[in-house]
Amino acid sequence: WPTNPTSFRAHVAEYCQSLRGLALLLTEAISESLGLDKDYISRQLGKHGQQMALNYYPPCPQPDLTYGLPGHTDGYLITILLQDEVSGLQVFKNGQWVAVDPVPNTFVINIGDQIQVMSNDKYKSGLHRAVVNCEKERISIPTFYCPSPDAVIGPAPELVTNDGRAVYRQFTFEEYHHTMWKDGLKKCLDTFLAT
């Protein structure tokens, strides 16, 4: 941990605890929106996991020659993103990249691949990327809420279609996480499609 400022570690810990509470509220709301018990998703996560990154994107004189982060979906359950006032997040919509301009004092919530699987494709994880700015630096702080490595992820039985078809097979989050990093930062859900 940085020693300057001395309060950095305490502030980050408080921020992480607050975001855990928000993540739990969001998972309850998502569960209920799917017609499931409000604690359904939470029960599937095992011991739960949370990771945070602090991203710094310096100004780039030729932003069209690089990406801050290439197009990808988040392999976690949900991502809670805090971004500064500099635009850089883009989502892929209707065949094109669209900027998600920052709104002061708000979070951007990304649905991740694990929600897509549990919802049996009723929710979709969004393809997004980060681009750099030619004039300004950008800071973003994503918090990833995820299952524990041994958690078994699969479609909720109540959401399997009338013909009994689950879109995805069951897998451990550890298996998913290994596949995601082995194949690079890209959507890897096809690996887990049901046969």
Detailed description of the structure:
With 195 residues, this protein is of the alpha+beta class. It is built from four helices and eleven strands, in the order H-H-E-E-E-E-E-E-E-H-E-E-E-E-H. The protein has helices spanning 8-33, 40-44, 113-118, 173-182; strands at 49-52, 55-57, 69-72, 78-83, 89-93, 96-99, 108-111, 128-130, 138-146, 152-153, 171-172. Strands 1, 2, 4, 7 and 9 form a five-stranded antiparallel beta sheet that branches. A hairpin with a 2-residue loop joins strand 5 (89-93) and strand 6 (96-99). The longest helix has 26 residues, at 8-33. It is globular and about 55 Å long. It starts with 7 loop residues before the first helix and ends in a 13-residue tail after the last helix. InterPro entries: IPNS-like_FE2OG_OXY, IPNS-like_sf, Oxoglu/Fe-dep_dioxygenase_dom, Plant_2OG-oxidoreductases. Pfam families: 2OG-FeII_Oxy. GO terms for molecular function: metal ion binding. Keywords: Iron, Metal-binding. This is Fe2OG dioxygenase domain-containing protein.
Which keywords apply here?
4 helices, alpha+beta, five-stranded antiparallel β-sheet, 11 strands, four-stranded antiparallel β-sheet, 195 residues
Radius of gyration: 18 Å
What is the string of helix and strand elements? HHEEEEEEEHEEEEH
Q: In percent, how much strand structure appears in the residues?
A: 15-25%
* Helix segment tally: 4
Largest sheet: 5 strands, antiparallel
Number of β-strand runs: 11
Shape: globular
Roughly what is the average pLDDT, rounded to an integer? 91
Uncertain segments are none
